[in-house]
Task: structure prediction
Amino acid sequence: MKAVVIEKQGGVEHLNYREWPDPVIGDNDVLIRVKAISLNHLDIFVRRGMPGFPIHTPFISGGDIAGRIVACGPAVKKWRVGDRVAVNPKVPAGMMGEEVQGGMAELVAVPDTHLVRIPDTMDDVTAASIPINFGTALRMLVTIGNLQRGELVLIIGASGGVGTACIQLCRNMGARTIAVTRGAAKVKALSKLGADHVLDMDACDYSKEAWRISDKRGVDLVINYTGGSTWVPCLRAMRRRARMVTCGATEAYDPKTDIRFIWVRELQILGSTGYTQQDIERAFEIVAAGDAKPIISSVLDISQAREAHRQVEEREVVGKVVLTVPDNDE
Result:
């Protein structure tokens, strides 16, 4: 098969689309002919290198995978060849595309317990854009954040896959949103998506604006996977006993903080790590019902992986960048 291989960690020039050994499936695995893979910031971190988390190169990243089963291990009972499936990449051996080889390739082996059936009415690009972002958003908002109808939610970095999912899920649950992004084009896009308020962090003090929008009471819930310079402004914007949920640090993992806000307002700082199989299954139900949809920024051939990485890394996108894989069976 061919795969997008990280030859060594660093810039996009270290990505090569080349021949790679076919995966070998175990008794409880299925072999998937990949049709589409969507990128996440995790793919950028893996390629560039994360402090304290080296990978052994060459390596294949990619966790958001959709395709069809072309082979099943002898113990697989629920699935059969020809089934269209998406993947829950948090497999027992570790996170696919981060700790174990991922799916940015023509073929990938996955345990049969970590699949979701793709509805007949759903295309592969959409299916590949659901698992990580919608699963993460559901867990942050509902399981960890305990979002309630009528609450005001501040979403930092709202133009990415998780952010655009959060805006739609909040709307469906009867919550109001303040989406923070960068640039006039993204402001316009998020307004069309249904955010109640959209703030350009380059054009205003979003902490003060959020305080004003909340009638100087503060927001109820903050979704922050950016970290870095956004941390203290978020604390300032929160009401007494508000919750901030964090699942990542696309800017920096060691931000300056101000603990006075935390104790004076009794703020709750909550961590959220990924999603469950149930989160992803629920996400597919929501999208299939038409209650939300992944926002697709661009679709490229898998041979254009360097360009896909560039778009995500330079934050040119609203929603997801998806790579499609030619069907070499035909």
About this structure: The chain has two domains: 2-129+294-324, 132-271. DSSP finds ten helices and 17 strands in the chain.
